[in-house]
Write a structure and sequence with these properties.
Helices cover 48% and strands 6% of the residues. It has 157 residues and is mainly alpha-helical. It has a domain of 94 residues: 2-Layer Sandwich (Glycoprotein, Type 4 Pilin), CATH 3.30.700.10. It has a 3-stranded antiparallel β-sheet, with helices on one face.
């Protein structure tokens, strides 16, 4: 009789111990909320950090686009012995896709979706200036909203 009672007591004791172990493995609501708050703060910090990088990336894309357009303008001048009056001269219907100076209409848009501008003659005795007005689409501005120009491509940070 002792053996049987001892067996039941031992089995009961093991079951209770397993139950206690299972309940200790879970997380309380407070612990879950703390983890969610920490992850939210981490995500907000990364978002703010990456937004500056994305803005700088768009400015670099604008500089690259202006460089491509400047090269096509030089080719146009060689073939026609004059500068075009507008950037439309580099795309259809004025230019054919087989022309050396041809660019697609999508290449005439800056990374913010605004059209690049051409000024002929350019400022300070330059023959032309290709200009992106930045994220705000208006002359001037600072940071991401600052203009990007073919005149100062090498001088930009």
């Amino acid at each position: 009789m002792n053996g049987t009672d001892g067996f039941k007591t031992m089995a009961h004791r093991n079951t209770r111990t397993l139950g206690e172990v299972r309940s200790r493995c879970g997380m309380t609501l407070v612990e879950v909320l703390a983890v969610v708050v920490i992850l939210g703060l981490l995500a907000a910090t990364l978002t703010v950090g990456f937004s500056g990088v994305f803005g700088k990336g768009k400015r670099e894309l604008a500089r690259t686009g202006i460089g491509v357009i400047a090269g096509k303008l030089e080719t146009y001048r060689i073939e026609h012995s004059s500068w075009p009056e507008s950037l439309d001269a580099l795309t259809t219907p004025t230019a054919s896709p087989s022309s050396a100076y041809y660019v697609g209409k999508s290449q005439l848009l800056d990374p913010w979706g605004n059209a690049y501008r051409l000024v002929v003659p350019g400022p300070d005795q330059h023959p032309y200036e290709v200009l992106s007005l930045g994220s705000d689409g208006a002359l001037g501005g600072e940071g991401e909203a600052a203009d990007v120009s073919s005149i100062n491509l090498r001088d930009m940070d």
